[in-house]
Amino acid sequence: MTGKIERLEKFAHSSSHWVNWVAGVGLVAMLGLIVADIIGIKFFRHPIPGAIEMVAFLGVVVTAFAIAFTQVRRGHIQVEFFVMRLPQRAQAGVTALVSLLGIALFGLLAWQSYDFGRTLQVTGTVSMTQRIPFYPFVYAIAFCCLPICLLLVVDFLKSVTKAVKK
Known about the structure:
Layout: H1 2-44, H2 51-72, H3 88-123, H4 135-165
């Protein structure tokens, strides 16, 4: 079982790294767009039309695609003040429960984001200035929930294994 968990963990980590690269590209694009807009305003008195709108969409890309890698790095907020005082077996049980709740949360977020994206696609909802469709970005949020669910499944399996072994 441990070998399968390790393979699943390796796949989850590599997929998280991949989506993090997309977040990095979005961040660089956001930076470039902001700099170009500022230069356009200050030197040419002509801003980039819809720059604020595009920066907002890139913000969605950066945030959504960075969530899984943040989980890999253990960068999310955790309150361990009480948990660290528990015995190892109980700590593993609490970690398993928290992972299970996270899987439910991000699974629900993926499902609802997909559902909302489908609604936006069918209705043809677009942004006001550049007429950029909203639905690809909502679908991206749904897609980005999958690697984090995978990571949480790995955390759950490792915690259960640790709780059973001790």
